[in-house]
Specification:
Number of helices: 9
Organism: Palleronia sediminis
Number of domains: 3
Order of helices and strands: EEEHEEHHHHHHHH
Strand order of the largest sheet: 1-2-3-5-4
CATH class of the largest domain: Mainly Alpha
CATH architecture of the largest domain: Orthogonal Bundle
GO biological process, one term: DNA recombination
CATH superfamily of the largest domain: 5' to 3' exonuclease, C-terminal subdomain
Distance between the termini: 47 Å
Largest sheet: 5 strands, mixed, barrel
Family: Belongs to the RuvA family.
Strand content: 15-25%
Oligomer: single chain
Protein name: Holliday junction branch migration complex subunit RuvA
Subcellular location: Cytoplasm
CATH topology of the largest domain: DNA polymerase, domain 1
Helix content: 40-55%
Structural class: alpha+beta
Radius of gyration: 20 Å
């Protein structure tokens, strides 16, 4: 299994690139979004890769981030979604956009990808809505830094009057939901407020993420 390539760009084509690694050129298929982030010919590049093996075919698919690669693998688990459709979805929405669409049950957003019809889009949402939160909560490659300074030893942090205290059994789900939201780019403070509001009516990681995203979505 080839999981990552690091070398120099040999050439850029419409749907693939060639990466020169120590004199060996690897043809790597990429999404439109990843293609736009690629450096110019001869410049250094690094891509996470996924190898598709068939009886008469070997194809490498490349991704700018590990999260994008893992979404590709998850999308490919849906019947009717092949590598081409997966790259189309990721190219249209990006990894964060796919996460939001699935968490909110937004099949219309998935349909924005070229070649993805309404039935397939709905199947993606239905089949991945329970699997997606685990991937969303994996975290980015860099840890989220708490902007608040540490409290002095022996000091109890203040609790907002309207902030519900999570039950022990649901604390892990709320922590996972907050991690997923911060990985999507929301500030820790707004993620915490949204999850706390969602926890008033929802339990479980997937339900908390969906409800919190509805709270954070732009109104109007």
């Amino acid at each position: 299994m080839i999981g990552r390539l690091q070398g120099r760009v040999g050439y850029l084509a419409e749907d693939h690139v060639l990466i020169d690694v120590g004199g060996v050129g690897y043809v790597v298929f990429v999404s439109d979004r990843t293609r736009r982030t690629m450096p110019g010919r001869g410049e250094a590049v690094s891509l996470y890769t996924d190898l598709l093996v068939r009886e008469d075919l070997l194809q490498l698919f490349g991704f700018a981030t590990l999260t994008e690669k893992e979404w590709h693998r998850l999308l490919m688990s849906v019947q009717g979604i092949g590598a081409k459709a997966s790259l189309a979805i990721l190219g249209a929405l990006g990894a964060d956009g796919v996460a939001r669409a699935i968490a909110l049950g937004d099949a219309t957003a998935i349909r924005a990808a070229p070649g993805v019809g309404p039935k397939i889009a709905q199947r993606v949402v239905n089949e991945l809505k329970e699997k997606a939160p685990a991937l969303m909560a994996l975290g980015a490659s860099e840890p989220v830094v708490d902007p608040d300074p540490p409290m002095p030893a022996g000091t109890t942090p203040p609790v907002e009057a309207d902030a519900p205290v999570p039950a022990q059994g649901d604390a892990n789900a709320q922590a996972e939901a907050m991690s997923a939201l911060t990985n999507l780019g929301y500030a820790p403070a707004e993620a915490s407020r949204a999850v706390a509001q969602a926890a008033a009516t929802e339990t479980g990681t997937a339900a908390l993420i969906r409800a919190a995203l509805r709270t954070l979505a732009p109104q109007g």
